[in-house]
Amino acid sequence: MRQKQFQQDINQDIILDGSFDIAAQEQDMGRPSLAARLRAHLFASRLDREVDAGAVVVPGTPLAAHVARITAMRHRHTLACGLRRAVDAAGSTRRGVGAPFPIHSDRVQGCRSEIDHITLLLQSPRPVHPRGIARLRMLLTDGTGPLYDGGSGSLAAALRAVVAAL
User: Fold this and answer.
1) How far is CA 135 from the centre of its chain?
2) pLDDT (tens digit, 9 = 90+) per residue, 96-131?
3) Phi and psi at residue 87, to the nearest 5°
4) Which class for 142: exposed (0-12), middle (13-18), buried (19 or more C-beta within 10 A)?
5) Helix (H, G, I), strand (E, B) or coil at 164
6) What is the 3-state secondary structure (H, E, C) of 107-158?
């Protein structure tokens, strides 16, 4: 029952009528309820995919809470630190089990300029589009993606997509 109710709530979040611009900073999203904020935390990966797909944000919903959280300077700073850790780990001599996480060092080293550019955008006081943040979060958390050893795809292309969306 609760899952069905949550699905209905999520479906209500995705209204494709253009009534709310996801990138507009001047629009007031209001303060989502505690339940909406909790759902936003519990289903963050799913909501990232929805933001990336272009879902329209309705104030007071879990999607609105998620967008507000991921575009806040505090979260942007955390993401920038995550990128810096990936660069530091790529330059580290520790490999294998003792490594902080199994990143694909060659790809990361080859994309340092893109990573630096994204880091600067994240730490800038200028507003960023939630779609770019969602794409970056998905890149950082996808262990089968191009950032990590054994992952597939082009890290440079993924990072360029993040920059384009920011």
Assistant:
1) 5
2) 555 556 889 999 999 999 999 999 999 999 999 999
3) -65, -45
4) middle
5) helix
6) HHHHCHHHHHHHHHHHHCCCCCCHHHHHHHHHHHHCCCCCCECCCCCCHHHH
